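Below: protein 1.
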Amino acid sequence: MIKILELFGGIGAPRKALVNMGIDHKAIDYVEIDEKAVRAYNALYDPRYKPQTVVNYNLMPDILVHGSPCQDFSRSGLRLGGKGEDKTRSSLMWETLKIIENMGNWKPRYVIWENVKGVLDKDMIHSFNKYLIRMTQLGYTNSFEVLNAMDFGIPQKRERVFVISILGGGSFDFTKLKRKPAPDISHFLERNVTDERYQITVPSMLNRIAEFATEESEYRFLDVIDTHCWTISTRQDRCPNAGIIKNENAPYRYLTERECWRLMGFDDADFNNVLKEYPMKPGMRNATLYKLAGNSIVVNVLEAIFDVLLNDQHEVPTFSFELHEQLELV
């Protein structure tokens, strides 16, 4: 049985991946401070968790998965993630290191960290580099790569950095991940969406549709979805977003909440369970359901990672300490 600990657990994408794969596992704990995410997680899995932070937590999992809040590393955010420890929401990743340190001689075999591509940018790389160094000092070998959900059967151009840290010297080979092309997004869309709540009627949004763009424009535009969407974020009623749908009857609409959940790798049964916790209000889109989806990890990518981690024999290489060419040692 695999014991897993989810930090900044959101709606439990790692656990969903293990469920889909039929892997016998036990969630020894789930740590999430967002009360709405906790309620959603309980609706999906085990109704016993309460909101809690990761500070000073001490547990003994086989796999530790953490995806600390990404806003301060995001290229669309405030870019505060390079300020170091204890300065931002994203710096909660340092609490993960403290948790591992507090475990003493026993440590999780695998640690997975997921975050936005912005952690590799010049003004953020210092924090990323420091995390790798600290993990190495704790006895882990780190491997990382930018993975796109498009390569794992999900028609969403969502690129995220995944750091796989293996205790005792074994390295993770990203070339062994089972990739598969994404089908056309039409397979993920609801049919005949005519509800007015999803129609784009606000002039400030209509005026920024990419089809009407000119070379002189200084604004970022709303892209019309063709075969795939762009990154599912916490809101779809802003520009830029994951893209908009052009309909035959009503010209343009937003992605629905259900479509966003599908494009993160969750099935309709999952969505329906959480919908009971956060029902729709007349004439309004459900901001909570959008946010929960946008903050998650794509389940299909985690399935591919777990498949290699749990079914592959990792070779122990000659010790080396090689970082990405952009990294600078501290």
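Below: protein 2.
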Amino acid sequence: MPVSLDEIDVSIIKSILEDGRKPFRQISRETGITTPTVIARYERLVNIGFIKGVLPVFDFEKLGSEDNDTDAHIQLEKQLAKSVQSRSAITTRNPKSNLKEEISEVQKKITTGVAIKVVCDFCDGPIYGKPKILKFANIERFFCCVSCKSGYSQKYHGRIESIKRKYEGKSEIDE
């Protein structure tokens, strides 16, 4: 069963689209949602695979244009654009004009009720109906069936326990 975006998810995503480096507290102020809720919703969107990462957008116009470095700058620009393009990110030659258009297009597509397809974290198959969820530390993993959830738990038992110990130690320090 796909996960549907609600108004909270949409407002967080739109805030991140403006500047992906914003602290959660600033997103909280802009959206009127509490900081813990912003963090939890962001982590959920990452865990289900909707947010793959926050990537930089480069302004290649800022690169120096000394005659002997021109070839190096062109090669760097092509290499970075290829790298970013392979990650399905926004690539643009003139970020000031095209980036706003790209963000506007994305914002139009992201609305309340948009369904996000969730795949099983063990078998990579589609999840129909309500997913089986394994929660540990601040991580959620989604499975299509109890067998996949059990198989994942057995396969990654050591890692899960290690993450739990680190997370418990971290929360004790924070208090």
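Confidence is low (pLDDT under 50) at residues 87-96.
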